[in-house]
Structure formats: structure tokens, C-alpha cells
Amino acid sequence: MSWDWDxxxxxxxxxxxxxxxxxxxxxxxxxxxxxxxNLTYRLTRGGRALVxxxxxxxxxxxxxxxxxxxxxxxxxxxxxxxxVPRIFATGAxxxxxxxxxxxxxYVEGTVITGAMPADFVAPAAQRELGEAFVDGLIALHRIDPxxxxxxxxxxxxxxxxRHLKRIAGLVTEAGAIRPEFAEVHGWLAANVxxxxxxxxxxxxxxxxxxxxxxxRPARLAAILDWELAxxxxxxxxxxxxxxxxxxxxxSNTPVQDFASEAYGPGFPSRAELVARYAAALPYDTSxxxxxxxxxxxxxxxxxxYSRRRGADPYYADETQVPRFLAEARxxxxx
Length: 334
What we know:
Layout: H1 7-19, E1 28-32, E2 39-45, E3 48-54, H2 67-77, E4 87-91, E5 101-105, H3 123-142, H4 159-168, E6 172-173, E7 176-177, H5 179-190, E8 199-201, E9 210-212, E10 220-223, E11 230-232, H6 234-243, H7 254-257, H8 270-280, H9 288-309, H10 320-332
Antiparallel strand pairs: 1-2, 2-3, 3-5, 4-5, 6-7, 8-11, 9-10
Helix pairs in contact: 3-8, 5-9, 5-10, 6-9, 9-10
């Protein structure tokens, strides 16, 4: 997935920044991240840094990569006290590119994409980090959508069944679920739980999508990558957090690979994270196995869809989907 800046787009960017009082002159532009979702760039000039975020080049899946929706969400969550970057400006398709975009503050911090940073190598520091990590999701799920102007951000009623149906459409051919996905889908469809509540959910809350402030105690500097956020079942969001972390004695899924080097002996166990979440919020976690099966099955379908599109070589590995499906099957008890 790539997109290159040309002289014309650089000149338009400089003009846009000056018009909004954000930066004078041509900034230095540096890509941020792995490029598997929206495209993100650091803009620097004269000691100031901003971040520009835009979708990848068209064509895009329907409803995907809605960066203006993401900007609206961040603008609401910041004043509510959540650790998110400040939004400075948004632009519609045609203002700079053939897609919309937004500009936000550049937050200093560390995103854990490999080995644990030096501040958190000790077991006690890893426990501190793990607890702060789940506490970030707890803080999000405590926010009342209506009080921050997001009551219309989605439809939480019937979210679980509707989300399952939508994701199943990615692996449906000639009216039937493809065989490799069918067994787990049948179990999920037969056991859909009622919603445990209605909350703002991140939908991709993992170590690679949070930024840590320097030093101890462990503190989230910013929660990043909100493109999949919705109003939905908070326990589904929590199940994704759990599924993104390696589990001792088991093979990793592709998402867990991103956290494998950071997950050390001091990090809270899965049971401890569940206990911490359940003690902080009133949501029923008794159907957690269904949500764990679903998030792994969903990731299998999304990776399969991306591999078939062929737009990003990361998804070409044919072992990725079976790894997710095996983990989903474990939680079904099939």
C-alpha cells in the first residue's frame, strides 16, 4: 500500500497549513506506521510537528477508512479526558487529495512494535504497563456516548448479530459461507449473546495502537488508529484486547506476533486482565468465550479478504488465516 507526495500536493499542503495558521512554509514529510490501514505522516517545520492522516488510494471498501468520522470521534473524546491527540483541522476530498484527511497534534511517546522499551523491562514495570493498558480501554468504555455528542455514532442495539452478519458477507459465495469458515460461523450464529451494554468501542485496541509516555509509572500518552470505532458491545472490544496478546504455551496468531517481544514475565495474565476489567465496569463477561471466538474468526475473514484483494503483500502469507481459525475454534469448544 503506497502513495507518493508530488510537488503539486506538497505545495497545496503548505498553502492549507498557512491558511489555517498551523505552519508557515513547506514542511518536512515523514511516513509513520506500517501502512496497513490509513496513511499517516509527520509534518515538521520550525520546531513544530503535526500529523496528517488520510485513507489509502482508492478504490476503498464501502464504509472503510472514514477519516472524517475518526476526526469527529477524537474531537469528542479529548475533552472527555481520554488520551487522544488534539484535532486541528479537517479537509474534504478535493481540498488537497482525492480523499479527505485531518491534521492532529504530534504526541511524543513510544509505540511498542518490538522489544519492550528499557523503561518497562523489569517484571514490576511490565505489570504496571499491562494494567495501564487495560485501564485505557476501561476509561473509554466508561464514557457515556450521549454526554460527548456521540449518541448517533452507531446502533448498539442488535450489534452482535448484525456485526456477525456483516463480517460473514466477506466469506459468503453463492449464498453459502465458504467451507473453511462455516463450522465456526455456525456455532457463532447459534450462540449470539445479547449485548452486554452500549459503549464507544475502539475495535482495534492492541499494543501497537497505543503510545506510552516516557518514564515510570507507565502512562498512556495517546490511543491511536480509531478508524474502526463504533457504538457497540464493550465486551467484544475487550475480547479483541485479550486476543491481541500472546498466551503462554500457545502458538501466536498474526496479531499476537506484533506483541510477542513485548509480552514478558511480569505482564498480567489473561485471567488477571479479565478480573481487572470486570471489577471496573458493570458489563457481564460470562459470554467472553463467544466474543473471543468471534474476534479471531473476524480477523480470519478480514485477513482472507485482504489477501484476495492483493493490494498489500503483508497479507500474502497463506498461513495467517488458518492460525486465526484454529484459535477461534478453540473458544467454541467444537
